[in-house]
Amino acid sequence: MRRDKKNQKPEKNVSKRDKRKYIEYKQKHKKGDPLPSFSDEVRLNKFISNAGICSRREADVLIAAGVVMVNNKVITELGYKVKPDDEVKYDGETIKSYNKRYVLLNKPKGFYSTLGESKGRKTAVKLVQKACKELLFPVDKLDKDATGLLLFTNDSDLSKKLNHPRFQSKKLYHVELNKPVTQGHLKKLQEGVDLEDGKTKVIHASHVEDGTSREVGVEISSGKKQVIHRMFESMGMAVVKLDRVRFSGLTKKDLPRGMFRHLTENEISFLKMSK
Question: CA–CA separation, 144 vs 162, rounded Å?
Answer without folding.
Answer: 21
